[in-house]
């Protein structure tokens, strides 16, 4: 009798699984904005087109129950990764066609839904293959691995695009237009090849993923569960203030997210800093993201020590106030790379520090109840919706206002975040309540 194949260590598939998820997401929703800009698209359309690709990730809670009804979760992970890899290669091929932009947008839009499906299935493998102790043990590795994705995509790939454009193909890095096609075709071939390699690896080491106890038995059952999840969400006490918090907490960041990199690469004649793609990849995509990771770690320790209720408004200040560094840079237009890097690192560090408050609030206050996972997904979906709405209009606003006035507007947009945070309700324990010691005396948690 054949013995069952031993399960592979989670260290073999958790880091690579979440890295692959992040690579696809960042390539679609962030790197495409830089590519559109390089290809000569104006800020309004570049920000709008790349932001529309967030839609699938925003509404994925609506089709998550249907994904889990069929086959295994690993099956969907592998299918999605193969399709994303082939799709990225298809993007590289399509860029050689006349009138390629229509083909690109159709491909990107399809790939965003496939990428969102990969996220659902990968999370499903993680949750159903690991017990609660293992989930907690690998949570930090999961988060770190996901954050390596943006460093590779928004840092490494953007840097490489500039190097290829200038040093390999010999084009002028300050001129945006069709000459950039050569470099970006190679970038998407590389991203596609890397995703296909990850699919081959996961076919070997990723577990199948068990069927969750509450998995719907059919389409009607899935629809019923979704409806009940909506109904129970809106019956929660203070739900509208929680929804306002979920949508508005990162409002100013949504307005800054696409325009920040555009400001970095636009020439001084347009009010920008005139950085090359190589420098953008280093400053924004590498040093900036490293600062986010460090800030997130320290922010988590800060909340764990003092509790969320006592720290949430401070965390909101950390997310929003340092945005002023972009306003200052737009006024003074520093030429020193050290000064530019410092401005980006300060904003990114405090963004990472404060953003942990958003996720913890959703877990502790919005999610608890009958549909914890679904309600948490609704909360993150509202965050995605905020990014989509602000991203779609941000480029058009910036073109109307210019960089200095636009960054003034970004600072004004912090006000709704402060109000939503100040009035955010706390109906569940935030972990800071005093707990009795062995003698029965209350001590801080």
Automatic annotation (TrEMBL):
Taxonomy, superkingdom: Bacteria
A GO-annotated cellular component: membrane
Keyword Transport in record: yes
Keyword terms, alphabetized: Membrane, Transmembrane, Transmembrane helix, Transport
Major place of residence: membrane
Subcellular location: Membrane
Membrane-related topology note: Multi-pass membrane protein
Annotated transmembrane regions: 12-34, 46-63, 75-94, 100-116, 137-163, 183-201, 243-264, 284-304, 311-333, 339-363, 375-397, 403-424
Pfam family, one: MFS_1
Record domain Major facilitator superfamily (MFS) profile: where: 10-428
GO MF, one example: transmembrane transporter activity
Entries under PANTHER family matching the protein: MAJOR FACILITATOR SUPERFAMILY DOMAIN-CONTAINING PROTEIN 3, SOLUTE CARRIER FAMILY 33 ACETYL-COA TRANSPORTER -RELATED
Name recorded for this polypeptide: MFS transporter, PAT family, beta-lactamase induction signal transducer AmpG
